[in-house]
Amino acid sequence: MASETLAYPKRLIEVDLPIRKISDHARREKSIRHGHISTLHIWWARRPLAACRAVLCAALWPDPVDPLCPPSFISTAQEQMDQFWNAIDTGNYHLDDPLEVRRALLDFIGDFADWDHTIDERYLTTARALTEAAHIALGGEPGTRPLVVDPFAGGGSIPLEALRVGADAFASDLNPVAVLLNKVVLEYIPKYGNNLADEVRKWGQWVKEEAEKELAEFYPKDPDGATPIAYLWARTITCENPSCGAEVPLIRSLWLAKKTGRSVALKLTPNSAEKKVDFEIIENPNTREVKEGTVARGSATCPLCGYTTPVKSVRAQLKKRYGGAADARMFCVITTRANVLGKFYRIPSQRDLDVVFEASKELERRKRDWKGEPDIVPNEPLPIMSGVFNAPLYGHNTWGSLFCPRQLLTMVTLVGIIRKLRESINEKSDFNTAILTCLAFSVDRTANQFTALSKWHNGREVVDGVFSRQAIPMIWDFGEISFISGDGSYLDNALNWILLNFEKGKYSSTDSIYQADASNFILPDDSTDAFVTDPPYYNAVPYADLSDFFYIWLKRMLKETYPLLFSGELSPKKDEICEMKGWDPIRYSKKDNKWFETKMQKAMDEGRRILKPTGIGTIVFAHKSTSGWESQLQAMIQAGWTITGSWPVDTELENRVRAMNSAALVSSIHLVCRPRESPEGSLRTEDVGDWSIVLKELPPRIHEWMARLSSENVVGADAIFACLGPALEIYSRYSRVEKVSGEIVSLGEYLEHVWAVVSREALATIFKEADTEGFEADARLTAIWLWTISTGNGENGNGEGTKSIGYTLEYDTARKLAQGLGAHPEQMPSIVEVKGSVARLLPVRERTEYLFAKTARATPQKVKAKGHQLTLDGDSIEGTYIAESIAEPTSLDFAGNTILDRIHYSMLLFATGRGDALGRFLKEDIGREPRFAKLAQALSALYPAHSEEKRWVDGVLARKKSLGL
Ligand SMILES: C[S@@+](CC[C@H](N)C(=O)[O-])C[C@H]1O[C@@H](n2cnc3c(N)ncnc32)[C@H](O)[C@@H]1O
Ligand SMILES: [Zn+2]
Q1: What is the helix (H) or strand (E) element at residue 651, kind and residue range?
Q2: Residues with beta carbon inside 6 Å of ligand 1?
């Protein structure tokens, strides 16, 4: 017998959410820096505040239309909405109708997500009044606030917004750097506000002055008064041509500045006597004067003899020298002059080199004199992780090796000054700790720019930090910033970025900030009102390993201040939830897919345990692969969560250069969920679902949802994954779903059905009213494929004029989508090529041999085309790919079978200027076949805007029209 079920009103997020508005604000926010917490310190893949704020309001506030919605909340909502909207003169809501109250609330949520409203008092007071009213109406003690818990708090976006909208926040993370970030954002900034800002500014200036005293001699001005702001360095190797043996500087590009109206380049002149090159600076050269760099794809070409030392040897040579940063060769000094605009480039003088030598000596002296633990220069190991940490492959095998000697001297000096400050203050004072922590952040933040992996950007003329990517990639030449460069020194910058955060610090503070493992959580049962979190996305970001870059410096400054956080050699890895084996099968041999699933399930178990039975959960997730999704969903279902809603929020930068030919994933999905529990809090285990009913419910639900998504401009891969929410709403309503035979339907089996239904529904949206059954499998597969990689704005093109190299999808995804359409990519070699885990939809040009009865056997000439091999996450792996030129048919007879073949055949006739043949074919063969036109029109809409295929199919359609067909 089923036990009594829980009754509670739905929250707004379980009925509706203005996702388009929120997405617009979230995207815009990504380009905002002033005062945004992302400038406090790097944390990878932060959630936009806009999305967090909206989701929190909608999760905390009940739906006024729900019959169970407490009247007290409805009346507060009416009052607040009346006041709010009337004040800005758009009060066209009839608030005695609950539907209108809901509309007013959702409009409010959509507007509040705007960055410009972050500290707008009208929004803040309204939101806080609603949060309070909701909390009390739902049974909260008067005078208390609802508790929002985020056990994967990272950079702190979710708890910060929880505080902003009037809730209490509990923020924890396994990672010490994240915990410290949360301390500053959630505790110190709101607690001490401007007082803290003033002290940090004052002491920041002191740190800088102290450092300048110690470092001035190592960053001297030029004799003519110019101020060096950066030094460019090249790692070197010895040319392996046995008859040469010259020193080869590894330089990727010889352009030093490349701006309209002003450019500067480097010229390499062979110096055979000394077996090396000499450098020369050329101002405003013409393009032909500037040679290629010496290194391409890791192989180095000697400017003296032209011999190319292969990548393997380059690697072996650098490996022996710990990456070669410490003995790199300086090739340029960039300076500024008082009262003269712009930057000046000169070659290094002997004095520049002498100073560096002195800096190395000083560093050695400090190393010798240092008696403490850990070593003054970070010698903690830097691991190799395939595809993400490749600098260690070249010998950068300690964190300290990422810095050249003068950079190390600077970092060591700064660390020493912070330590000195710490020893001189009363450490018992929480306020002093706050100051010290902010200052330590300004120092470790600087380190990002101060490494031998920091790149000189010749367009913007600045040094970019290591973490312009979520990785530790090797680079050949690097930019060393001068610590003392007059105005806007790096430390000043770092400090200013931190201080800007105080301007937006209008929220209450919390001291519930802990280092904790989400899968073994520290809160008691049923203690939480909302479990809102953004857990690690399967194998998207190796947070702990990345964070060690900062951990090693923070530890050296703050280990006495936060002994628990910095007790380890490096940040804790063992319990980090992430599929890591793919990157590092040795260190992380256990952390495979299964491990992720089990560990994530424990975290989801814990979330349900700490949540009140009537509480609400929201889990953010995004992943490019169907398997990543399946692991996450499996964990949630197993843990006893019922999915009650799901919302995609698009967070990509609007102006981001779209990856081409890819299925770019721009949305993350917010899965709304509830504990599947009985009123007293026990997990319900006897709600058995009937498989046939579940199956019947699925297609109409997906149908309705796809229409909504498309009206919100969510298409392609984003729409596919966004359908998982509603699909799971049906399945996860039950403790288990059974077939008539009593056999339990696994999530895996259910999802196979879901993919099938989703792809059929997507196909129906593509062909609108046309009967999709009428198209053959190849047409259906092609259509769904192109749709999956589309983004709704026609920007996923090949780029004008480039030759098509096909469209790739992860094979597993392609297979799952295809099967619902009765197609099997691996059995369709005439349109799909499967290679390992990647499947490529062949470009039409590669189908010539297949489509023409007789084709010249001569190997089709391969033309190199700059292209992108693309993956579902929109990462483009740039490179040169081979696009075949169109093979030469010796007979124009059609040799295909299907309508798609006929269209492609016509496109090729058009592409090769065989107008007569095209006219004849259209007239005689298929011009009157309605499916031809339908499919051709669909393809015209699906092929990327600038692709050659789009041009060709439009050409065919125009021709057909001109023939009156
Ligand atoms: C997607 S991020 C959260 C980002 C955050 N929402 C933000 O906006 O910055 C996931 C976080 O989970 C943390 N994490 C991974 N495994 C964990 C575990 N077992 N317990 C707690 N936190 C963990 C990582 O350190 C990372 O900060
Ligand atoms: Zn040589």
Answers
A1: none
A2: 43, 45-47, 151-152, 154-155, 157-158, 173-175, 178, 517-519, 534-536, 543, 575-577
